[in-house]
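Collaborator request log, item 7. Partner lab (contact: R.S.) asked for a structural prediction of FkbM family methyltransferase to inform their binding assays.
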Amino acid sequence: MPKDDTHFPTLPTAASRPGLVPRLFSWLFATGGSRHGTLGTHEELFRIRGELATLRAELEAMHAAVGRRDIATLEELFRGGNRRQVEALIRDRTQNVPLPDGSVLCRTLGRFKMFTDAADGGIAPHLLLDGYWEYWITEFICRNVARGETAYDVGAVYGYYSAVLADLVGSAGRVVALEPNPWLHSLLRRNVAVNGLGDIVTLHRCAAAEAKHEALRVPAQLTGPLHGSFANWFTFEHGRAGCPAPAEALQDLEPGSIDVLRIGVASAADSIVAGLGGLLDRSPNLRILMEFDANRCKEALALLAALSARYPLRYIDGDSRAKPCTAEELMTQRRVTTLYLSKVEPR
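Returned to partner:
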């Protein structure tokens, strides 16, 4: 049965009597006899309130039986219930359409259309089957990003977080998304266009680094179809794919301050942070979400020392709350995590 074929449960009904609205108007305007009939004013109002409560209960039963079909905004979605309820609502709206160019079109978070790589065994399976990625991070972002803010999404891949950020900042805000892989950048560009986010999201096919580079070789886990239009961009060294891309220090990308920075490239975290200095200085209320992997950083301890000199170290736990941690814990117990770095207390 198609998911959007809504079949409401059959609910027991009371004995036939005049409808609630006609009786309310009858009472208000005395169209059905004396306003002070046999039941009396207070008795009739008490009965009406009881029937309203019954109607609300019936609507809740319908929602429980068939789920929500009208997810309008992320704010409404994450306000709608606990984690299990929200996950169920999102999964209920998943749909997948394989396409001949090696991509698969799916629906994420109940509303965004998203092109993914059919060969991707990392993010794509979660988007295709669950409709979301890293729920705890998604929920945290939804609580801590506001209308009108400016956000950077570094290592945007398909633009999942770019779309989330765009939905949250709205038309008064801006999102700048960086993705150096030409195949992924093409999917990112299509995702921004198909969701009508072009007026909010600015795209750059470049990498973030410690300084400007005309052509920096970046690793590429996904290259698209073997004989696709982007195949010639990629070369292989020691069995690993890579491609050339321009690079820019984030402090030089644009003038002015920003509010939110997501760094989704754990392997390049050292060089990205090295190119942040000026941006951090002019963005006192900046909130950074950074994927940290002690195994992939070049100098993990030095990176943590540089970050902790500016911000308290916190990580996003599975309950979507930012919790304090130490560099020692990040080097031992939590070697792979998402850090929250800011002087702003998280919600």
